[in-house]
Design brief:
mainly beta
Length: about 130
């Protein structure tokens, strides 16, 4: 039975692996999962492990009451593979996340499903 690209992506995450697609024709990376290369139209696309390094392209803080879990961050991340994805940056105050910040992906399990989140990398923009 043929597994959809999105189902395959989620199955990899559930197993703890962050994979994206790459076109075997033009070599460009592809995200979100799909059947045809959006750059050159080739098929099939192959699955490769994402390097996991990226840069925050945009960031927002979603405000919630403390009893609802508190504030959290929603960010759009430009992966080093030249694809963009929505996620969140953890291990830092939501308001401290900034555009241009370097981040590293990790897969976490939430309610039995794999999910990609990011965390800050190294010493970022220390105040002078």
């Amino acid at each position: 039975m043929h597994m959809s690209a999105h189902t395959h992506y989620q199955a990899e995450l559930d197993a703890g692996r962050f994979c994206i697609q790459q076109c075997s024709q033009c070599q460009k990376h592809v995200f979100t999962p799909r059947e045809l290369c959006p750059h050159c139209g080739a098929s099939p696309l192959r699955w490769v492990r994402a390097g996991g390094m990226g840069t925050v392209y945009s960031t927002s803080t979603i405000h919630r009451k403390p009893e609802a879990g508190g504030n959290y961050n929603v960010a759009i991340i430009d992966l080093d593979e030249d694809v963009r994805m929505m996620s969140r940056v953890e291990d830092e105050s939501p308001d401290a996340v900034f555009i241009g910040q370097r981040v590293q992906a990790r897969v976490v399990q939430k309610e039995g499903r794999g999910l990609v989140v990011f965390q800050p990398v190294g010493e970022q923009g220390a105040a002078a």
